Amino acid sequence: MVKKSSMAAAAEELGPAPGIQAAIAAASCCAKRGTRHTSGPGNPLNALPLGKLGALPISARGRAGLTYLKASQWRVGAGLGGAPGEVTGRQPPIAWGGGALRATGQLARSSEWRLVRSSDRWDNSEAAVRLSEGAGLRGAMIRRVLPHGLGRGLLTRRPGTRRGGFSLDWDGKVSEIKKKIKSILPGTPCDVLPDTSHLPPEHSDVVVVGGGVLGLSVAYWLKQLENRRGGMRVLVVERDHTYSQASTGLSVGGICQQFSLPENIQLSLFSASFLRNINEYLAVTNAPPLDLQFNPSGYLLLASEKDAAAMESNVKVQKQEGAKVCLMSPDQLRNKFPWINTEGVALASYGMENEGWFDPWCLLHGLRQKLMSMGVFFCQGEVTRFVTSSQRMMTTDDEMVTLKSIHEVHVKMDHSLEYQPVECAIVINAAGAWSAQIAALAGIGKGPPGTLQGTKLPVEPRKRYVYVWHCPQGPGLETPLVADTSGAYFRREGLGSNYLGGRSPAEEEEPDPANLEVDHDFFQEKVWPHLALRVPAFETLKVQTAWAGYYDYNTFDQNGVVGPHPLVVNMYFATGFSGHGLQQAPGVGRAVAEMILEGSFQTIDLSPFLFNRFYLGEKTQENNIM
Amino acid sequence: MAAPWVSLRLVAPMWNGTRGIHRLGGAVVPEGNQKKERKMLQFLNNHFYDVEALRGYLLQREMSKVHLKNRSFTWLEEQHGPYSAGAFFILKQGGAVKFRDKEWIRPDKYGHSSPEFWNFREVPVEAVDASDCEINYEGLDNLLLLKELQSLSLQRCPHVDDWCLSRLYPLADSLQELSLAGCPRVSERGLACLHHLQNLRRLDISDLPAVSNPGLTQILVEEMLPNCQVVGVDWAEGLKLGPEEQPQDTASPVPA
Fold first, then answer.
1. Which residues in chain A are closer than 8 Å to B165, comparing Cβ atoms?
2. Are the beta carbons of A286 and B46 separated by less than 8 Å?
3. Which of A376, A393, B69, B150 has its CA 20 to 30 A from that of A449?
4. What is the documented function of this protein (chain A) (predicted)?
């Protein structure tokens, strides 16, 4: 059987403390054998503070070996020298020799781990005496290490023998020796080898800039579609591990297929099937199945007279692509949803299946968990520089063009000047609202305007507000996510007559995206009147809370940017989805992964979303943006 | 790589063979002696890659068995008609069907059933009892062939979840009775999509472990379906009833 390293095992196992019982068992074994160390004035157990601390330091038999002792609740170690039968079945795996060195280094780093050597040369009774005199496990415990490799020099001599006698300065001696040992062991904070565990690896095949749902989705599909297991090293760099400003967590979480572009519809359909089967896609053994809290209540889009024709043609396209959408007249609307006021509504489209809303945090967490199990590296840091190399080439039209490729990414740590250059082959820009900055770092947009070199990535952050209110007489359980003719939308939240919603402001009223402060006047003046008009019950509502989040808004045509950049050949975009990134993330992730691995889109053709359209001026306009 | 401790759900199917699949989504409390086995399995899983891979493989196998059971039988439609095709699917799953004016047809303990239903080309299926069947979202393709279904029982189906409920609306014209008792994955979010079934007269939503607030959900569902008798949860549950108060007739809507 292939054994996992003890550290991996320790990391995974989180059972209740077997500590005390095993300690007692081990001690009683020791007592039975009558070895010296338990015959001291105190049974070592008496010195142990009972409770969650794991226990026993001293092995049953005095053979050389290593005993791991954990002062927190996880495991208990018993001496190697002790015959396996003596200790209870909960004996953890114990690493020998070199493994011990590495493991001990890591263990010793935490002040809660102690290493105790049991050996013939050790005067166990003395140790027992000291032990019982000590303050307890975390106090003046005896710490002795004898890794196999190191010689039996000073360390094995009894503490008192250095001065040729029984020294009274026992505690001082011990701390001195402990310091010395700590400085020698690998992994301990030591001047010679600085601790680099927080830094990303020095080489990585793919660097994903941005750890939101789009970045994680691309990483997931890259690992899922790679030809060989472990074939690619993927590093996800996320600046803020709390995701406090990330669009994913602040999103309303809706998914719908009611778009005007067939590609968008297909992306949403695929994402719906991904979410439906999320426990097959993101299955991790030992992890509980994910509960997305999906509400399949659908979307209801209302159209006024002037938009009715567009809505009809959109619904036709949607039905062709396989979305289950139906058109409703105002009468049918009133029949089905009696709380709606159909004044000004000429037509409505209602999604019946695969539409609704879900919990985006759950998706994010599930992706992270699965990625960690697949071996993707995560790093908390900010990308500050791309080191590129250029090549001048001739096109078929005999023009010289400079192609760049990024071969190094500088990742800077939080609150520090420290950075790590990561050599990479491919960079994926999934930085959401800040994608333009990342693109600018790679030199995209630095050139005379009107040329391909001068075409910037037109993605900018736009602030959107979401308000939560309570209305006891409001619409019932069957309420879909209703999007009004004015652009205001709302949906139910939970069982308790709470609703949440908002509205996209007009171009000239765009709030300043410098921070995520909420403007409550916007609700009073711009959102509430429309809601109250559409749903009379909302005339009496009470706002409970509100928050703001960013759209990674594509100012060109409000649709995503996917695929490689024509000049910076190894930067791939997966950004700019202007408010529907979350619902299209699984599909987009797969498309980008296919582009990278196969060279072209295989399942859903997202060529209308390539970067070239910004230079060529061809808009792929999406009409149904909320 | 820290896998959290919690799950006992993925362990149950491994341990309990065929019965285990029914517990895949369930919040079933394990018995005492099974706990030790589970702990041992957890321990082995955490320490040995082989065990982890084996568990992963076994889980994949269970899932593909369910997929196989729910494969599409719509190709039978052109030859035998939709009703026979749908009935065949249900019988294969282990459920029972009742054609109009005929008796209930159930498979025997070997899974075989009498072939008489192949002749009922024009006779619609009136009632389906799919209790304890492993029907899931894809399998509903076959069930929805039965356009004139009046009574559907999905009791204790382990794979019927909210997504499946959102697929039931094509039966809105005919469905009068629906039972979801004991389905471990159905929550109040799925019950919200039952509002399409306006002809429903009897709805059983008892014993749904995933519903967070059964009493309130019952009230909201009753409001949503005013002509339907919603059975299963006593809406006064959790409220203190005096001896003279009785639960109201559940068919009438709660007065505003």
1. 296
2. yes
3. A393
4. Required for the assembly of the mitochondrial membrane respiratory chain NADH dehydrogenase (Complex I). Involved in mid-late stages of complex I assembly.
